[in-house]
Amino acid sequence: EVTKDWNGADQIAIRSPRGASVRVCLHGGQVVSWRNDRGEELLFTSSKAIFKPPRATRGGIPICFPQFGNCGTLEQHGFARNKIWTIDEEAPPLNYGDNNNNKASVDLLLKPSEDDLKCWPHCFELRLRVSLSMDGDLSLISRVRNVNGKPFSFAFAYHTHLSVSDISEVRIEGLETLDYLDNLSQRERFTEQGDAITFESEVDRVYVGSPGVIAVLDHEKKRTFIVRKEGLPDIVVWNPWEKKSKTMADFGDDEYKQMLCVDAAAVERAITLKPGEEWTGKLELSAVPSTNCSDH
Ligand code: TA6
């Protein structure tokens, strides 16, 4: 079902028969809402979010492509999240029940405009399939194809803003022994020594070579987010904490307590595509009640 968002840009909603839902904007190909079958919003969006194209809305799951961060010639996190995407007419959408599908999907497409080619001269097609399963699991599958140009390299991230009750009661399991690049100290490389990752100050790290599954446990809400990924070797973990929050106009001063970015990403090593080659990056998010938060 296509609705309009608060600035007139098209938004497509998928509702599962059990009441879960997801909404994605043609602006930026950005998932802006993911609700469980009780209607609870699982993604964070800042109360001070500014929907003013071309800037991306602060929250949901912006698509960072072809660059992550500001270590390149493009705007922060690349241009994909700031562009208007189109519905991919070549991809027949999935619907619940059709040939016993247990998910419904919407397919979006981004191709470079003449202007884009001026600042990033590569012929690509970026296709994004957003699906919602009968159980309310959200999956995003991105496919980047090099449309017979010259070889090109890119970084990619699903910039996922999870909604949490209290960041100081949240921990991440699955990254315990990994190396990470610390954005707070010029991307210096460290090795995680701890057990689960907990939060008591600003964190901005790229965990490299992370496993396919990690768990984000929200103690207070007794909810665990399971993050599954393929084709995305890294996990970016970011919470701005109080001081950094105050420097962001589109972020409330104490909203850092209710959010955590856990981005499935390919950042440390760029992905290179030869002409005609295609890369696929999959993210699957589940939100499961954790009766006892330590059972993982
Ligand atoms: O998540 C990592 C990061 O690069 C942080 O350094 C911070 O800048 C965050 O992304 C937010 O970026 P954005 O452009 O969405 O404000």
Automatic annotation (TrEMBL):
Record-level Gene Ontology MF annotations: carbohydrate binding; glucose-6-phosphate 1-epimerase activity
Cross-referenced InterPro entries: Aldose_1/G6P_1-epimerase, G6P_1-epimerase, Gal_mutarotase_sf_dom, GH-type_carb-bd
Record EC number: 5.1.3.15
UniProt keywords, alphabetically: Isomerase
Catalytically driven reaction(s): alpha-D-glucose 6-phosphate = beta-D-glucose 6-phosphate
Domain of life, per lineage: Eukaryota
A Pfam family annotated for this UniProt entry: Aldose_epim
GO biological process, one term: carbohydrate metabolic process
Entry keyword annotation includes Phosphoprotein: no
Residues annotated as binding substrate: R58, Q76, R81
Cellular component per GO, a single term: cytoplasm
Enzyme class: isomerase
PANTHER family cross-referenced by the UniProt entry: APOSPORY-ASSOCIATED PROTEIN C-RELATED (PTHR11122), GLUCOSE-6-PHOSPHATE 1-EPIMERASE (PTHR11122:SF10)
Family: Belongs to the glucose-6-phosphate 1-epimerase family.
Stated name of the protein: glucose-6-phosphate 1-epimerase
Species this chain originates from: Panicum miliaceum
